[in-house]
Amino acid sequence: MINTSWVLSGTEEFRLESAAMDPVPKGWVRIRTAYCGICGSDLHSYRGRHPMVRPPIVLGHEFSGVVVEIGEGCSPALVGQKVVASPSIPCGQCYQCTHDQEHICENLMVIGNIGVPGALAEYMDVPFNRVLEIPDSLSLSSAALVEPTAVAVHALRKVRVDGGVVVIGAGPIGLLTSLVAKAQGIHPVSIVDVRLDRLNVARQMGFNHVYDSRESGVIEEIRRVYPDGPGAVFDCVAISDTLNMALRVARKGSSIILEGVPEGPLTLDAVYIQDRELRIIGTLMYQIPDFQEAVRLIHDKAIPVNELITRHVPFQDVPQTFQQLSVGKSQDVKVLVAILPESGGAR
Length: 347
Ligand SMILES: [Zn+2]
Ligand SMILES: [Zn+2]
What we know:
The protein is an alpha/beta fold. The chain folds into two domains: 2-145 and 308-344, Quinone Oxidoreductase, Chain A, domain 1 (Alpha-Beta Complex), CATH 3.90.180; 151-282, 3-Layer(aba) Sandwich (Rossmann fold). The chain is 26% helix and 27% strand. The protein is built from ten helices and 18 strands. Strands 3, 4, 5, 9, 10, 17 and 18 form a seven-stranded mixed sheet that branches. The chain has a six-stranded parallel sheet with strand order 13-12-11-14-15-16, with helices on both faces. Helix 3 (146-157) crosses helix 9. The longest helix has 12 residues, at 146-157. It is globular, with a radius of gyration of 20 Å. It binds zinc ion (2 copies). One zinc ion (ZN) is lined by residues 90-91, 93-94, 96-97, 105-107. Residues 39, 41, 61-62, 148 line the site of one zinc ion.
C-alpha cells in the first residue's frame, strides 16, 4: 500500500512524499484519513517554534477517518468503521501511567507531534486502544473537531465551577471551552479577546458577555457580571498580558486554568496569587473519557462544532493554507483539510 503524505521538512517547508507502507503493527489499526484540522500548535511547528516538534514530521492530530486494515490482536469488526482517535500514546509503565494520569506520561508520544506520523496523509496507523468508534450519523467533518473539544472537556474537569466562568481567548480552544461550559449549564460565560472578528463569532454563537480586552475598565466591567466574581478563569492564550488579566479578574480563592501553551517565560504580578489565594492549574490534552464525552457532546448537537468550521481545503493545498494561516491575516476559526471527504468512499 502506497501512502502519500505532506512531510514538514523544515521551517515553513513541506514536501509531498509517496512511500510504501510497512505492514500494520500488532495492536495498531490503519485509518484512511477523512479530515484533518489545522491547529495553532501545528502553526507553531510550521514556524519552527514548537518546543517539542522537530522536522521531518507528518503533522495532524485532529482527525477522523475510516479503519481500512487491522494489525494482529485488533477486533476485525473495526474494519469499515468511522473513527476518531486520541493522538496521545502513553508508555503504560511510568508513575503517571500507573496512576490514571497517562495523558501526562513521562514518555508520551503524540501522533502528528512527537514520534508518530500524523493525519496530513492518506493513511495513518494508530494504536487500537486509542481508537473510538463514532456513530454512523455523526459526519466525519464534525468528528474532526472531537480532539479540540476533548481539550475543553478535560480543562473543565480540572475545577468544580461555582458561579460562571471567564474565558480569555476566542480562538477554537477558547470558543470550545465556552461552548462546553455552556453545555454543562455553567452561566454566565464571558469571553475576552483582542480580535473583533473572533468576538463576533462568539456573539453569533449566542454569547452575550463578550469583551475586547484592550478597552479600559474591562476588568471591572466583567466583574460586574458576577455578583461574587467568576468561579474560574480559563486562559486559552497564555501570554503575560492574559495571565495577568486572569489574576485580576479571578474571584479570591478561585482557580485559573492555564489552557494555552506559553511560548516562553511569562512575567506575573505574583502578589495576586499570594494575596488572593489563587491557584494556577495546568491542563494538557485529555484522557479517553474526555474523548468519549466530546463525541457525545458533538453527536447530541450540544455544541455546534460545524459553526466553527470556516473552510474545507483540498489535500493538495496544505502548503499554501499553512502559509496563509501562519501570517495571521485570515479570519478563519477552524480549517479542515479534506483528505478523503465523505462522498469519496467512506461509508
Ligand atoms: Zn491541536
Ligand atoms: Zn507513561
